[in-house]
Amino acid sequence: MDSNLKKLLKRSNLGLAYLPIHSKGYLLRTKGDKRDYIIINESLSEEEIEKVVLHEIGHYEHDNEVMGSYKNNLRTRDISEHEANKFMLHQRIKNYLNNGYEPVNINYINLADSLGTKDYLEVKHELAKYITKKSKTSDCKSVV
Description:
Blueprint: H1 3-12, E1 14-19, E2 25-28, E3 36-41, H2 46-62, H3 74-97, H4 108-115, H5 120-143
Parallel strand pairs: 1-3
Antiparallel strand pairs: 2-3
Helix pairs in contact: 1-2, 2-3, 3-5, 4-5
């Protein structure tokens, strides 16, 4: 497992359990002071495990911001799933860029395909954040 993923799990104080389940994974919230867990389908590839873990950390970090019942309200569920996917894409793109790739040179459609998502606009939006950051940093350096 990637060291960044381990850091995120530690920061969130989430445990991992690999079990023979029918879905890819889910977040198991516990009562009281007990540790919450991400349950992962034991037959997933390393890449799928990374996606699922990041997605579930996204739920852990953002579901409390979403109003309504996940189980009983489709709109709430859509928003919750979107935020979890957005978190996962943000983390995967950040890791990709940390490997030395320049955001301005990346074709967002190809990147989305390589990340296994059809959410092209979210990938484009996420890359744009890094391009904007980089141009602001460059502007500051040229002023000095």
